[in-house]
Amino acid sequence: MNVTRRRFAALAAGSAVAGAGCLGGGDAEGDGNGNGDGDEKGNGNGNGDGSDSGVDEDDLLEIPVIGDPDADVTVTVFEDFGCGHCAIYHTEMFPDIKDAYVDGEQIRYEHRDFPIPVQDEWSYAVASAARSVQDQEGNEAFFEFTGEIFNHWDDGYSYDLIEQVASDFGFDAEQVRADAESVTYRDGLEAERAHGMELGIEGTPWIVVDGDRVEPDTAAIVGAIDEALADD
C-alpha cells in the first residue's frame, strides 16, 4: 500500500535540501575537520574527472540493504558521513521514508558510500565504523548505527563518540573504534567512491529511485517511489 493522502501531505511538508548538497567528483582537500575545499558544515567541493577509476566489482563493499531485498522498486542513496546535507537527509527525511516504505517492505533500500571527502578524516573514519558494525551485526545494525551517528554530526565527530554510540547499541565498541581509527575499510571505501564517479555521481546525498535521480526533497522522493510502485 502506498502512503495515504494525509501521510503524503505530512511527508511533503517535511525537510528539503533540493538544489543543495555536498559537491563531489574529485579530491577535496581538508584537514580532517572539514576545512579546506570542504568546510566543517558539510559544504564540500571537489574537482576532478575520475578518469582513472576502473573499478573491479570484487573490490566493492557489501551493499547495506533494508526493506525487501527482492522488492521491485529499489531506492539507492549515496552518502558521505562528513556531509551536512546527508545529515539533514538522514535525520529529517529518511525516518519518514523508512516508516512509509521500508518497514512495510514495499521497497529495497540501499546505502552506498561516496566519501567526497567533505571531511578528510571523518568521511572515512565514520564510514569505516559503520562498516565494522555491518560486519559484526548485519544490515539492520548498520542502519541503526548510521542513524544515530548522523544525529551527532552538528556537534562534531570524535572516536569517543563512535565508541559510545556502538556501545549504546551493544556492539563490540572497541572493535568499531579500532576500525574507525585505522580506517580498516578504506580500500573498499575508495573503490565505492571511484564506482560512484563512474556512475556520474556528483555530490551527496545522491538519491536514485529505480535508476532515476531524484532531488533530496521529501515530496520528490515520495512521488518517485509511488510512481515506481504504481508502475510495478
From TrEMBL:
Any Pfam family matching the protein: Thioredoxin_4
Molecular function (Gene Ontology), one example: oxidoreductase activity
PROSITE patterns: PROKAR_LIPOPROTEIN (PS51257)
Residue span, Thioredoxin-like fold domain: 64-226
Keywords: Disulfide bond, Electron transport, Oxidoreductase, Redox-active center, Signal, Transport
Top-level taxonomic group: Archaea
Region (Disordered), start-end ranges: 23-57
Biased composition (Gly residues): 23-36
SUPFAM superfamilies in the record: Thioredoxin-like
UniProt cross-references to PANTHER family, sorted A to Z: DISULFIDE BOND FORMATION PROTEIN D, GLUTATHIONE S-TRANSFERASE KAPPA
Record-stated family: Belongs to the thioredoxin family. DsbA subfamily. Belongs to the glutaredoxin family.
Protein name (Swiss-Prot/TrEMBL): DsbA family protein
Organism: Natronosalvus rutilus
